[in-house]
Design brief:
206 residues; Ribosomal Protein L22, Chain A; 8-stranded antiparallel sheet; two-stranded antiparallel sheet; 27% helix; globular
Length: 206
Amino acid sequence: MNLEERLAILVQSRDPIWMPVFPISSPMPNGVRIWMVESKGRKLGTIEILEMSGFDARESLQYSPNQRPYFPSEESADFNISNLPSAALVGFSDSQRIGVDLEKLEKSRFREGMLKTHYTKSEISRISALKDEEKLFSMARIWVSKEAIVKCIDIPIKFSELEIPVLGTGENIVIVRDEDTSEKYELTLYMLGLPNGWVGAFALSE
């Protein structure tokens, strides 16, 4: 059963609620599907989510040295999951590596003290010029972008050294360099259109 067939079944029998989500002002890339899952106050597990999607996760799921879950079969779609107590973001990709991240817009989550430890000087300068809700929104957008990128390429990178450019509403190209190997990665980053109070992103890499 291919990805489209699995997700067609999922749409018909979803419980908890699975809502398809899309990039802001940009078409969804071919072979990519993103879902926001309502979890009704509890944090859904990775295996639980994958089995809802029709995958035999208990037998075949493996983890990279950085704890990124994946299916070893070359025929399997790549996937990534971001779990929170009240919702999850689930991304599937037929042909590219994918990383996703979801956060709730809460001041208690994005405190100004995080700026020096998790944001670059350029990002801090942009964020500091904003006020209140705009500052919170900018911090959250940059954060989910970094998370999605790191989860996509599966390399440990300090957030304070990972520069996120000024984000547009369509495709955003980000170049990431692995300091240990000097290898460069080019990723395409997308911000997602989500319900009020949420911010999310996904990244794709070859």
